[in-house]
Specification:
By secondary structure, the chain is of the alpha+beta class. The chain contains 2 helices and 4 strands; from the N terminus they run E-E-H-H-E-E. Strands 1-2 form a two-stranded antiparallel ribbon. The chain is extended. The two termini are 24 Å apart. 0% of the residues are buried.
Amino acid sequence: MPTENTTDTAQTTRLSVNINSETAAFLKQNKQRGISLTESIRRAVAMMDLVERETSGGNQVLIRSKNGDMRQLLLF
């Protein structure tokens, strides 16, 4: 269960989560690149929020490859 930390001027939430080995490896790679665990999770949530907002509004999220081919991102 998240716990609220109200000692800071901005309210934060401390989380404890279970992740699979692939996710742990990805987070470790990011950490080696100088991206903290907190920042990695923040970016992941921001990306999920973006995709959810766009797709719930009827939009598509597309990926364009280097050669110009496009495909639709289907995650959720």
